[in-house]
Amino acid sequence: MCAFFGLSKLCNNMKKVYLLNPVSDREVVSYFKSIAVHPDGIEVMDKKSVFYTLRIKDLSSPAANILKQEALAAGAELATAWSVIKDPDIIADALLMGTYRQIEIIAQKIKSQQFGLSDVADELESAIKNLFNTRSTLRYRDASINLEDGPRLMGILNVTPDSFSDGGRFLSTEAAVEHGLELCEHGADIIDVGGESTRPGSGPVDAEEEKRRVIPVIQRLREKIKIPISIDTMKSDVAAAALDNGADIVNDVSAMTFDKGMQEVVRKYRAAIVLMHMKGTPQSMQVAPQYSDVIAEILSFLEQRVLHAIKAGIDKDRIIIDPGIGFGKAVKHNLLILKHVRAFKLLGLPVLIGTSRKSFIGKLTNTETGQRMYGSVATAAWAAAHGVDIIRVHDVKETKQALLMTKHIMDA
User: Fold this and answer.
1) Catalytic pick among 68, 213, 279, 358
2) Could you tell me if 353 and 311 are in contact, meaning their C-beta atoms sit under 8 angstroms apart?
3) Radius of gyration of the chain measured on its C-alpha atoms
4) I want to staple 234 with a disulfide (CB 3.0 to 4.6 A). Which of 78, 130, 152, 258 is the partner?
5) Which of 213, 345, 392, 400 is catalytic?
6) Is 139 considered catalytic here?
7) pLDDT digit string (tens) for 296-331?
8) Under a CB-based contact definition with an 8 Å cutoff, are residues 304 and 122 in contact?
């Protein structure tokens, strides 16, 4: 073929070096296998194959200097403010850059050091283990869902008169059930049923009205579909009624801070729980939200809520985290969350993202709510390529196709 097209010289001088840019250890293992590396060799080299950059906040000058020395000794690198060399009182952030094995060695070396480095060592070990050993199964009730083969789609079913995108469309039980079945047919892996809008500025709904809206829908869907059903609520009374009638997951945008009884309901029913970050309340969250470091602040909040849930008796493998795009975030915050979404894998839990048709897409693309499907699908494909486990969407059919192509590219 080369000779036929007069390309024999090009074929004989084929490039011998080209770039591979793995985003995870799972992907680099596929590279090892493609060149027939022995399984024992893969086990040895796996922890040396992916390069991580970890941001470490608020290091004292002595701590930064010690960490720099240990990083260099391990063959890694640490970047920090130049002034830590001459100013013993400065507090600075740092970027630690290295492989799993190098960071593991550094953490071991600084465990006995002063200046807060023992705490840094614990966080480094936890972070690198969680990034390397991503959880592949979510348990709910007496069942589980496999997350290993790419993101699962959570189809949105709002039984509300005032949700920002589809409010009023599925108010009747018949219309809601029909739409739920359609979402299932289009490839939804979870159906998320909500009876109270949490759009910016929305007002509260009492528990009885919320139950009146969602329980008949959940009952009917449970009779017809086998995939897990989620109840989108902040109220423990509504969650308990939904779980009694066939729901499996509680999607709580307050991360169980609104209703203290929620933790007992989730524990009792052995349900899965989505813990989401929200700054303020739906009524106040979009009034000029401010962060000094949006990723670090959301991570800290979610970590505390996860620890609270585990302490309350909820199994870790039943917990999902959601950074809460659009819930007390400006456009720049939402973009940063998406750009750095792999950072949330540091907690070692499935990550859920919900961008579908949200206002930041409208502001960036100058589109109304009903015209934001393409922007929403783009964010879903990005999230899938960067390790997100569950994506909450209105447009299941279109997103499913985009994620299928994303998976084929990543698995090639």
Assistant:
1) 358
2) no
3) 24
4) 258
5) 392
6) no
7) 999 999 999 999 999 999 999 999 999 999 999 999
8) no
